[in-house]
Each structure stands twice: as C-alpha cells, then as structure tokens.
Design a protein that fits this description.
Blueprint: E1 3-4, H1 15-27, H2 37-57, H3 70-88, E2 100-104, H4 109-120, E3 125-129, H5 140-144, E4 151-155, H6 169-185, E5 192-196, H7 208-211, E6 215-217, H8 253-269, H9 272-275, H10 277-285, E7 290-292, E8 305-310, H11 317-323, E9 327-328, H12 345-349, H13 354-358, E10 360-364, H14 371-393
Parallel strand pairs: 1-9, 2-3, 2-4, 4-5, 5-6
Antiparallel strand pairs: 7-8, 8-10
Helix pairs in contact: 3-4, 10-14, 11-14
Protein name: Selenocysteine lyase
Subunit structure: Homodimer.
Pfam families: Aminotran_5 (PF00266)
Length: about 400
C-alpha cells in the first residue's frame, strides 16, 4: 500500500472531475467561438465555469482569465504590470525609467525566474525581500521599505508551498492602497499588487475583495479537480487575453463539491492525528531528533502542511524517502526535485541551518488522507530511519 502525502505538489484526479471531462469531451467538443450547437454548448460550459470560479474567489466572471497553468498566469501578471507601467507614462517620455518589481525571496520559480530573466535583459529591476527568520513571512514594513518611484508591482505569495506560512497580503494591499493615493498626487505610477494563491485555495479563505489585490492566481491541479485545469487570474484589470478558453468541464464540480471539500479540510484541521503529524514523530524519534522547519512564532500556517527534519548524519530527506516502503512525499517544491541533496533554497532563506535543511521532509495531506494513513507513515519513517542509522553505524 502507498500513502500519498504530496498534495502541495499536485492532487489526484477526482472521479467526479474525470467524469466531467469525459462528459465535456463527448457533449461539448465544439469550438466555443463557433455558432453551431456544439460550439454553443462549449461556450455555456466555459461561462458556467467562469461564474463558479468568480463566486469561489469573490471576483467577477468577466475578470477571470483561463491559462494553461499557474506558471503562465504568473508570467502574464509580471509582463502585464511592466506593460502597464510603460503605457501609463505614454507622452511623458522615459521620465519614470525602468519598471521595478518587489517580491519575496521564498516565491515559486514561476515568479522568481522570469524576474531574474527580465533583470538580466535590463527590462526590469527587481528586489527580493528576505522573509523574517522569526516569522517566516515577508513583513509588510520590510516590503514597503523597498518601494521606489519606479515600482510598478508587488508580488507576494499568499501561502508558501514548503513551509505553509501564510503571508500578510491583505495588510500589505491596504498599505499600498494608501501609498498609491500619495503617489498619484506626485505623478508617480500606481503600484499593482499580485498574490499567488495556488497553495491557499481549498485550504483557507481566498477572496480578492478582502485581500485587496489587483491580480490573484489560483491553480486547478492543487485542489483535486484536474491536473490540467487552467489557472484563473482575477481580477485582471490591466490585462486582456485573446486566447480561446476551451476547458469548462469542471464548472459543475465547484458549486457542488467545493463545500464538501472545504468542510473536510476544516474538520481535518482540528484532527491532531492527521495534521499534527510532527507530534507523532516527536513521540517516535524523541524531541531532540525532530526540528520543525515550518513552525514560526506568531505566524499562521496551512492546515495541511508539515515540514520537518529528522536530525542526524546520513538522514538527508532524499535518503529517508528512498527507504520508505509506503510513503510518497517530497523534500520540498516539486520544481526542485532534481537538485540532489542540496537543501531547499526556501528553507535556507528562512535561516534554517544547512545541515538541518538537508534532512527536510515536506508532508502535505489531502481530502482522502486518513488517520490510518498517518499511522502507517509514522511506522514507515521509523523503520526507514532505523535502517539508515544501522547503515551509518556499520
């Protein structure tokens, strides 16, 4: 038996989602831009999906833009903000200079890499704000301290994919809104706010109005409907997307299945046997042998995410997982899976010691995780560590 605890990477395809896709492919296979019945049916499904997603995140249907995935959506936001910066100074010459973007040093590669490329090509400037080693968050004052006259975008993820730490995005948006009023009086460009909510959706409340953001990214494959469900980016006030939106099959799942999933997450968050997995590991390995990499003073975390290290030589996370017979998990973000025993850059950015970060394991549960699964995982890890300890002794 295998126990899958890597839901932050992606989630299994729900049977309801598979059925919805099959129904769409057989009944609504037309081009949604065509006027014949098959095309109209596809357009109806897309419209329904758009309305359901809008209700889900407190946005408007016309603000939803479907893309091929979260990476494309985040890239669109970055380039749209830069374009808006240049369009806003039309007729003013180049008085504002090069667009400046602020983000944190624990963002997903779909934010970090395009920013690094834009900087390399001298098309933008970027500041990567270090998270606080005490809270694991990008603190509002630290972000605001990096603002320049040329700043056009602040992009801070809503919840970190490795530590589960929830960022103060709503507070940040409120402060930037007040700052924008002063900037407008000074003739400076408006600062847009974006948050990547890929990890938060389905695990906590996501509402664009409450967050006060201009852009928000959500990703379907993180919340079990479909590994190929497109990302949605509401509300894109400064971006038009002309791509055909051809996947609306999952609209029926959202209003009917989402409340069930949300209720499950709330119940499970109160179940220590499922979500306080570290307590079991402490009991099994001893307090001195477990380091919690995702516990920060005063910070809230995702209810499904646990990141910890089993301390000791030869217990690198990859080696431990290779000895597990049942556990399917990861040592961090899936996009870093080919980096060998190099510690997670996210954990290092949170000031986790190098040798501790090397031993990190990230366990993330989902809607089908049971108490029995957790018990099996604990047993599996205990046996794997015992084998590695024995190898080390020899």
């Amino acid at each position: 038996r295998r126990v899958y605890l890597d839901h932050n990477a992606t989630t299994p395809l729900a049977p309801e989602a598979a059925q919805a896709v099959r129904d769409a492919m057989s009944q609504a296979w037309g081009n949604p831009s065509s006027s014949h019945p098959a095309g109209r049916k596809a357009k109806e499904l897309i419209s329904s999906a758009r309305e359901s997603l809008a209700r889900l995140v407190g946005g408007r249907p016309e603000d939803i833009v479907f893309t091929s995935g979260g990476t494309e959506a985040n890239n669109m936001v970055i380039h749209a903000a830069c374009r808006h910066f240049h369009e806003s100074q039309a007729g003013l010459g180049d008085s504002w200079g090069t667009p400046h973007i602020v983000t944190s040093n624990v963002e997903h590669d779909s934010i970090r890499l395009p920013l690094e490329q834009l900087v390399k090509e001298h098309l933008a400037e970027a500041t990567f704000v270090p998270v606080s080693p005490q809270s694991g968050r990008a603190e509002v004052d630290d972000v605001l301290a990096t603002i320049r006259p040329t700043t056009c975008l602040v992009s801070i993820m809503l919840a970190n994919n490795e530590t589960g730490v929830i960022m103060p995005v709503a507070d940040l948006s409120q402060r930037i809104r007040a700052l924008n009023q002063r900037r407008a009086a000074e003739g400076l460009p408006r600062i847009l706010v974006h948050t990547d909510a890929a990890q938060m959706i389905g695990k906590g409340r996501v509402d664009v109005q409450e967050l006060g953001v201009d852009y928000l990214t959500i990703v379907g494959h993180k919340v079990w409907p479909c590994s190929q469900c497109p990302a949605a980016v509401p509300p894109l006030r400064h971006l038009s997307c002309g791509a055909r939106e051809t996947l609306g099959a999952l609209h029926s799942l959202i209003p009917h299945q989402w409340p069930k999933f949300s209720c499950w997450m709330v119940r499970a968050a109160c179940d220590p046997r499922v979500f306080r997995v570290c307590c079991f590991f402490q009991a099994s390995f001893g307090k001195q042998r477990i380091h919690f990499n995702s516990h920060f003073t005063g910070s809230k975390r995702l209810c499904n995410t646990s990141n910890f290290s089993i301390l000791g030589p030869g217990l690198q996370g990859r080696r431990v997982l290779s000895r597990c017979k049942m556990l399917l998990a990861s040592v961090g973000a899936a996009c870093h899976s080919e980096k060998g025993d190099r510690p997670s850059s996210i954990l290092l950015s949170c000031k986790i010691p190098y040798d501790v970060a090397q031993n990190a394991l990230r366990l993330s549960v989902g809607r089908d995780t049971t108490r029995a699964d957790v018990d099996l995982v604990v047993q599996d890890l205990v046996q794997a560590v015992a084998q590695l300890d024995q190898d080390q002794a020899l």
